Amino acid sequence: MQTESVYRRLRERIVTGGYAPGERLTELSVSAVLEVSRTPVREALRRLEGDGLVRSAGRGVIVAALSGEALAHAYAVRASLEALTAETAAARQRAGRIAPADLADLTRDNTLLAEVTQAGDYDQAMLLNRRFHRRVAELAANPIALEMLDRLWDQIVVSTRASLTPPQRPDAVVAEHRLLVCAIADGEAELAGRIAAGHARATALAAEAGVPDDSGANSGATVKKGP
Amino acid sequence: MQTESVYRRLRERIVTGGYAPGERLTELSVSAVLEVSRTPVREALRRLEGDGLVRSAGRGVIVAALSGEALAHAYAVRASLEALTAETAAARQRAGRIAPADLADLTRDNTLLAEVTQAGDYDQAMLLNRRFHRRVAELAANPIALEMLDRLWDQIVVSTRASLTPPQRPDAVVAEHRLLVCAIADGEAELAGRIAAGHARATALAAEAGVPDDSGANSGATVKKGP
DNA sequence: ACAGCATACATTGCATACAAAGCATCCCTC
DNA sequence: GAGGGATGCTTTGTATGCAATGTATGCTGT
């Protein structure tokens, strides 16, 4: 299925920053590069549009970037949803429905995260961080919440790299993760929810501080072409 | 743009129950009925798939229905997101950023809702109820949360009709709405969030009680064709 | 009569052709 | 020299044709 392949390749490249926000994608150019006809490209672009990763802008689509304001909104939603999943995960743990191995995975991911941030490998840290949070969400066993968080993370994941750059923030992230794991392991639902929400909010602040300066001014309209 | 038209018409019909859950839609049949070619139909179906309103099932797509379990998950997410929007709306009210007219609209919608439920017009009540909740979400001025709630409501709206059928439930709904409006009007953020979440949870229970019985067993696989 | 295989049909996936629409550019006129 | 209009090109929207695939049905053999 070529549509699927095109979709995945474009999506991968967008969420990793391979396409600059505001960059224009035309059906023809994409189909030429990926060597398929326009039909599967069209469908892939439509799906990406549904995901909020590109948006139609007159002629064709441009890759979307969340403005500073929109990013804040996204983090607010993330805080809310991750509070839910953390809470649910803790409740499930209390009910004995969480396998100990899953909890161990969480701890292991966080330890790995500590190591790579120590080494200054922020790209790897970004990935591990996302994996950690996804694992927590999985423990809630709520497919709808999980899917929404997946979509949301696709949109904010670029900014999470920036959120690691302020000094001491990586250590704080690891510490907060550890707290979260403990709360879940103890089955403290409300506490876990609060920690998750607090962590997301702290990350939002760090992301805002971490990005050099263009916070919000550039909604993707100005990036056209090099001189 | 025919794609848009096809998408909207199919979506409208699905969320209002015009297509039975599990019913099969083929590109050809839809394109014949709506008198367009397969191309715009394809795109519309893909968008609906992204919305979770249909899902591909081997040959073509079938209109999706949330199982009882999935519905519970959806309501959990709804509770979380509506807590967020209610909380944010109240905070904005406290900051003086809400127009009094918007608050009045809320009250008016709720009064209307009381009237039509009194009259037993559940179809109208379903619509007004959704409008009320959407208005609250709009007051939060968070486009991302708003869009997620829109998508979520498309999936659960059918069940909200059932949630009104248990005796006394309509009165409780109106009363809970009134409480919510008061909390927002008073700028009581945390209280508003709690009321919204509690209301969503109560609605979930009522929906479960309101639907005759097939709760969960039928995930849409069995409805094929009449005898 | 039942099981297995082959064939025919329904349906999707992809490509290509065609039409329409928007935008930029260039020329002509004032 | 500047402004307006016409023309041409780029790009999307829609239709249709063709190939591939999976399913159902019917036939044949045991």
TrEMBL record, chains A, B:
The keyword Transcription regulation applies. Keywords: DNA-binding, Transcription, Transcription regulation. Residues 1-66 form the HTH gntR-type domain. The keyword DNA-binding applies. Residues 207-227 are annotated as: Disordered. One of its GO terms (molecular function) is DNA binding. PROSITE patterns: HTH_GNTR (PS50949). InterPro entries: GntR_C, TF_FadR/GntR_C, Tscrpt_reg_HTH_GntR, WH-like_DNA-bd_sf, WH_DNA-bd_sf. This is DNA-binding GntR family transcriptional regulator. It comes from Nonomuraea endophytica.
